[in-house]
Write a structure and sequence with these properties.
The structure is a single chain. By secondary structure, the protein is mostly beta strands. 10% of the residues lie in helices and 46% in strands. It contains three helices and eleven strands. The chain has helices spanning 69-72, 145-148, 151-158; strands spanning 14-22, 25-30, 34-39, 53-59, 62-68, 85-91, 94-100, 102-110, 114-115, 129-135, 138-143. The strands form two sheets. Strands 8-1-2-11-10-9 form a six-stranded mixed sheet, with no helix packed on it. A hairpin with a 2-residue loop joins strand 10 and strand 11. The radius of gyration is 16 Å and the shape is globular. Residues 14-154 form the CheW-like domain. This is Chemotaxis protein CheW. InterPro entries: CheW, CheW-like_dom_sf, CheW-lke_dom.
C-alpha cells in the first residue's frame, strides 16, 4: 500500500446526494435520480409480486411500485412507521418508490471523498454500491440505483 487514498472514480466532481437510514445504517443516492420525498402511506399489495415489492401506490394519477429497499439490499425488511419515508426515484425511465426508515440529509460531497467498496470475498457482489463516503458521523454507502434495478427488472415491476 502506497499510502495514497484510492477513490471510486468521481475525482473532480461535486456530488449532490440524499442520505437516508435503513435500520442503523446510512445510505445515499445522487439527488438527480430523486423526484420527491413523501411521508409514509400504506400501499396496495399485488399478488405474486417479487418479495421486495411491498405493493403499489397512486402518485398523482400514476400507479408506481413501492420497494422495500432494505429487503432489496439483503437486510431485514423495514417495518414502516410514521417516521418512515418513501423516496420516489426515476430508474431506467420508470418511477419507483423506495421505503426508507428516514431521510437524514441532503449533502454536497467532493468526488474524492467517495472511496471504493473493499473486496470482502470473491463471491461478494458490490455492484449495488458506487462507493463508501466516510464523514464525521460515520460511513455512508453510496448506492447505484440503475445497477440495483436492472432495466428488465424495472420492466417486470411495471407489468
Amino acid at each position: 500500500m502506497t499510502g495514497t487514498l484510492r477513490t471510486a472514480g468521481f475525482d473532480g466532481e461535486t456530488l449532490e446526494i440524499i442520505a437516508f437510514r435503513l435500520h442503523d445504517q446510512e445510505f445515499c443516492v445522487k439527488t438527480t435520480t430523486i423526484r420527491e420525498i413523501r411521508g409514509w402511506a400504506p400501499s396496495t399489495p399485488i399478488p405474486h409480486s417479487p418479495p421486495e415489492v411491498i405493493g403499489v401506490m397512486n402518485l398523482r394519477g400514476t400507479v408506481i411500485p413501492i420497494i422495500d429497499l432494505a429487503h432489496k439490499l439483503g437486510m431485514k425488511s423495514t417495518v414502516a412507521n410514521e417516521r418512515s419515508a418513501i423516496v420516489v426515484a426515476e430508474v431506467h425511465n420508470m418511477v419507483i418508490g423506495l421505503v426508507v426508515d428516514r431521510v437524514s440529509d441532503i449533502l454536497t460531497v467532493q468526488g474524492s471523498q467517495v472511496q471504493p467498496v473493499p473486496e470482502v470475498t470473491a463471491s461478494f457482489d458490490k455492484s449495488f454500491a458506487e462507493g463508501i463516503i466516510a464523514n464525521e458521523s460515520g460511513m455512508i454507502c453510496f448506492l447505484n440505483l440503475s445497477r440495483m434495478f436492472k432495466e428488465r427488472d424495472v420492466e417486470e415491476l411495471a407489468a
